[in-house]
Design a protein that fits this description.
alpha/beta, 434 Repressor (Amino-terminal Domain), six-stranded mixed beta sheet
Length: about 290
């Protein structure tokens, strides 16, 4: 059992889940270690993601802890056996580890719920907009646009995005860049797996909406993860209670936001407000600059 040079989010989360099932079974690290044929401290290292498990030992762990859900077991097995390699591997010297972890998580996600306050979500950005956000760093911009391919690939996840109106008024790159970015949002809304809603300035209800986050939905609900965007950097959160709280928070934000962008359905009346109408209004103002 050699120690890893670095621990990625998948490895850390697997260890965290193994600790949860051990705690739920009321077993000590020493008891699990005895069943695996390793010393107690090694169990702590496994739960911290510092060392891995053979498939045989993983099966022993799950059996001992009476984990019977076949889908949950299959997901844990997949996490354990994954090499972690993908298209993102070639960018390991260009972006921070959290970005690599995000790309890996998105590649296996069934759904992505994104809330943004001052930026267009990365998966919906144009190249020109990304250029400005990343200081014209070609590799970072390329990485971001490689991420976007997840929305049009095989088994593409469902993306539900709620964007605060403030993000639409930020003139990053100038009026021309923002006009094209607003047009791009409309075009992306045509994808069958993409839903975009705008939370308007005049929303009368407060719903704790000052921190951007993304809820990454796994094939099994016990493995959903939240990525919190904070001033010191992004943080992955997997505690079930916190994930459930952000799930509820996103549902509330969706309920407060205008109805989704839909270019194929006309507004029922001239006074009806929806996300498309607000974007068109802002785009008209931008064109006049």
């Amino acid at each position: 059992m050699g120690f890893r040079n670095g621990i990625n989010e998948r490895q850390r989360r697997l260890g965290e889940e193994l600790r949860r099932v051990r705690d739920a079974a009321g077993l000590s690290a020493a008891e699990v270690g005895a069943a695996l044929g390793v010393k107690g401290p090694n169990v702590s290292h496994i739960e911290a993601g510092r060392i891995g498990l053979t498939l045989e030992r993983l099966e022993t762990w799950l059996n001992l802890c009476e984990v019977t859900d076949p889908e949950f077991r299959a997901c844990l097995t997949s996490m354990s056996e994954s090499s972690g390699k993908g298209w993102w591997t070639s960018f390991k010297h260009d972006v921070i580890p959290r970005a690599l972890d995000l790309a890996e998580a998105e590649s296996g996600a069934t759904g992505l719920d994104s809330y943004e306050t001052l930026l267009i979500p990365g998966l919906l950005q144009t190249k020109a907009y990304s250029d400005v956000i990343h200081g014209y760093n070609d590799r970072k911009v390329e990485f971001r646009h490689q991420r976007q391919k997840v929305l049009t690939g095989e088994n593409a996840p469902v993306l539900r995005a709620v964007i605060h109106e403030a993000a639409l008024h930020m003139m990053y790159g100038g009026p021309g860049v923002m006009r094209d970015q607003l047009n791009h949002l409309v075009e992306m809304s045509r994808l069958p797996n993409v839903t975009i809603q705008i939370l308007p300035f005049d929303c009368p209800t407060y719903a704790w909406n000052d921190t951007p986050f993304m809820l990454i939905r796994s094939p099994h609900h016990r493995l959903h993860t939240v990525l919190l965007e904070q001033p010191h950097g992004g943080t992955f959160v997997g505690e079930p209670e916190l994930v459930a709280r952000y799930d509820q928070r996103f549902d509330r934000l969706r309920g407060m936001a205008l109805s989704p962008l839909c270019v194929s359905t006309p507004a029922p009346s001239t006074t009806y407000r929806d996300s498309l109408g607000l974007i068109q209004h802002i785009r008209y103002k931008v064109q006049g600059r």
